[in-house]
Amino acid sequence: MKNFLSANDAGNIDDLVHTALHFKTNPFSNSSLGKGKRIGLLFLNPSMRTRLSTQIAAQNLGMESIVFNASQEGWAFEFEEGAVMNGTTAEHIKDAAPILGKYFDILGIRTFPTLKDRESDYAEKVLHQFVKYCGIPVISLESATLHPLQSLTDIITISSHLPVENKTKPKVLLTWAPHVKALPQCVANSFAQWVNAWGHANFVITNPAGYDLDEKFTSGAEIIHNQDEALKDADFVYVKNWSSYQDYGKIINVDDNWLLDNKKLETTNDAKVMHCLPVRRNVELSDEILDGGNSIITEEAGNRVWAAQAVIQEILRNV
Amino acid sequence: MKNFLSANDAGNIDDLVHTALHFKTNPFSNSSLGKGKRIGLLFLNPSMRTRLSTQIAAQNLGMESIVFNASQEGWAFEFEEGAVMNGTTAEHIKDAAPILGKYFDILGIRTFPTLKDRESDYAEKVLHQFVKYCGIPVISLESATLHPLQSLTDIITISSHLPVENKTKPKVLLTWAPHVKALPQCVANSFAQWVNAWGHANFVITNPAGYDLDEKFTSGAEIIHNQDEALKDADFVYVKNWSSYQDYGKIINVDDNWLLDNKKLETTNDAKVMHCLPVRRNVELSDEILDGGNSIITEEAGNRVWAAQAVIQEILRNV
Amino acid sequence: MKNFLSANDAGNIDDLVHTALHFKTNPFSNSSLGKGKRIGLLFLNPSMRTRLSTQIAAQNLGMESIVFNASQEGWAFEFEEGAVMNGTTAEHIKDAAPILGKYFDILGIRTFPTLKDRESDYAEKVLHQFVKYCGIPVISLESATLHPLQSLTDIITISSHLPVENKTKPKVLLTWAPHVKALPQCVANSFAQWVNAWGHANFVITNPAGYDLDEKFTSGAEIIHNQDEALKDADFVYVKNWSSYQDYGKIINVDDNWLLDNKKLETTNDAKVMHCLPVRRNVELSDEILDGGNSIITEEAGNRVWAAQAVIQEILRNV
């Protein structure tokens, strides 16, 4: 593994899952691999779970990690080729990235979409410039359109809850949920991409009309605009809001009630409920689900560490 | 020791003091105890001494520490049960705390009071929700009403300055001091609670009328509203401002001069002067005291490390 | 070496360069020297390269490092002797510095000039108070008027590019460049001080009228106000903007074009181009230079680590 930017970089996903679950029971089983190596974690946008879990994963492998919150620590990067930098941006990515490549062995980067310029966001302009100019392996800590560490975590979590003798594929449902802010599509895109690449699920996506995701990621999944119908017999329900991809970055008013509660779970196969967090309680998901026995959300967030540790190990082996 | 939230969690205070003073001369004497363990330090409010001293204490015990400044790193927590989160709070404590419990072995938390809702502040609503939901030992890095690491530090510092043959109890005076801002009562409450629990002092508190602290913490101390009278024969003078507990969170105008200077020290028993810092020079304490031989304030702040190290060691032994 | 605040603290610069270049090929060759030692990195102003490179240098020597961003983490320091602190400053340097001296073995500090009060800035009031009151060795991470870690880096970088059989001194040119903001003079002052102290260059400075630097640092260099003339036969061109020293902190309008591009390099001796970064592309330096073969700027920034590591090692040997 050279970079970790999407499911396309994952190699054999089952192997990654297996490695992650091994680390879950043996966190320090490879604690000298990273000795003398250093990972830089550059956040252009804030983070809690991703920052903490990646730092911990690196430490478990014996690496040093250094966090740099660019937005808070006062660094506005320029990404435009040929820019005359007489405005507010202080440093061009072409100058900053190679330095980070000199200071670190691996670079983790979090960027967010503009939610205004779809073409630019979906070209992953910012992420790809870091990859192009830093000269070291890059791990996406969430990018404009994808969140691969979250999705690997999700596959790990689903895998942990499959029966040992798993003869039929589980029904995995990704459902849109309401939110008060316009959020990126990245977690949903990425989940779709990974479940498709994993291949061990009957994968269904449900969202209101106007919220269909980019087919580049969803192709292979069944898309249903009626949530009640989609929930039927689901084994896993992944809840997530996203803003519109078609009417890019917009919130489209929705008449139906898309908030998931226990009533809606009744037609499922006693489904496990998942969410990447942070979650808006009683907007996306009801208290009764979050505080009840069907939620595996805390376990899911805990698995972030093992996903990151599996990925960093793969990259360290090639550094 | 399971949690460290107040003097009630301290067990035998003399033993803790003894342990801390041992670490002061042997910082690395137990440096492998924390190997493979991790402490998360979550600051809902800014900190300098507490953050640095706790990080250092954890490092001395061989632990990894990770700091998370929630207010700066953009995380507004929701604490209300049943909240419909369609406003500005991004994540409920019920969802965030268990994750921190999965990532860390010990959680340190700093919270501040509202200074508006006394009942809520004195119920330590925020701190107790972290304790309830995180599932791991919690160390208070200052809470709405108490600051136990500071108070243990203060007892350590006083202990260091007692004569070896200590036949009579020293007179320890806590005196209110002026300030330009409305400050919490937590340092004063906590000092009172700890000196009372410690039991080796004649303990007096002096403050202007209207500034009496909660009897829950001060009970056992003599309270005198005349500073001059209170200072007489004091061996230790602990200087601290706090806002009113009765007229909750307010600054009440005070006619007398409560600023401590050398003139006022004349009637003491050449008292050692203490303060938790930061101090407003020439508002709370005069330059001449801060720069003179009676101040043991720098030593006191240095002892923060050893207090934290003693506490973390006690908790690690039970993790 | 006790402190590292300017070229005056460097001792034999050639020896420091030699040590740094040794670390460049053997980063971990002295990785137990700093065991059990701790460096505090206090930033009163933001930093990327300095923060990262100094942390890495300390880690390479086996030290723990703790970063404290004072401006973000909410601490406004008071520097005036005798101040009655009833305003916005929360803590006097006289109280804060000694505590840092208790917590750390070495203190790194970044401060910036006011660019308003030249006398105060050039007295390095802030830095010197830290030195005076903290009681431990201090490393300047950039101060009001100097940036010695950058300048040592620059000498290391120039040294690396000298022919082995170096019979004649290289011509080193420091040229002023345009910028949109009023920047400190510190990088330029410091470069001048170090090149003069190093003594192995024919040193020329070119800047528009009104931008002459303090003679305290430049004395010994030839100063030319015509950039074209100055560039002739240069072996190294160091590009940097600074605000006026004479009309202190001001930006003086300049008629000529001082932006360095390939055309201007033609009369040089195929000069290597240097810059401390961050650089405003197409304002200070053209894209064609930054992206071309004459730039050694990325290498220069990478050398920050080895400069810091050589300095920290020297100080650790005396701690």
Write a brief structural summary.
The structure is a homotrimer of 319-residue chains. By secondary structure, the first copy, chain A, is of the alpha/beta class.
Give the arrangement of secondary structure elements.
The structure is a homotrimer of 319-residue chains.
Chain A: H1 13-25, E1 38-43, H2 49-60, E2 64-69, E3 77-78, E4 91-92, H3 93-103, E5 106-110, H4 118-122, H5 125-134, E6 138-140, H6 148-160, E7 171-176, H7 186-198, E8 202-206, H8 215-218, E9 222-224, H9 227-231, E10 236-240, H10 262-265, E11 272-274, H11 287-290, H12 297-302, H13 304-316
Parallel strand pairs in A: 1-2, 1-5, 3-4, 5-6, 7-8, 7-10, 8-9, 10-11
Helix pairs in contact in A: 1-6, 1-13, 2-13, 3-5, 6-7, 6-13
**Share of helical residues of chain A:** 25-40%
- CATH C-level class of the largest domain in chain A: Alpha Beta
Counting structural domains of chain A, the number is: 2
Decide which structural class fits the backbone of chain A: alpha/beta
Quaternary organization: homotrimer
EC number (chains A, B, C): 2.1.3.11
InterPro entries (chains A, B, C): ArgF'-like (IPR043696), Asp/Orn_carbamoyltranf_P-bd (IPR006132), Asp/Orn_carbamoylTrfase (IPR006130), Asp/Orn_carbamoylTrfase_sf (IPR036901), Asp_carbamoyltransf_Asp/Orn-bd (IPR006131)
Subunit structure (chains A, B, C): Homotrimer.
Family (chains A, B, C): Belongs to the aspartate/ornithine carbamoyltransferase superfamily. SOTCase family.
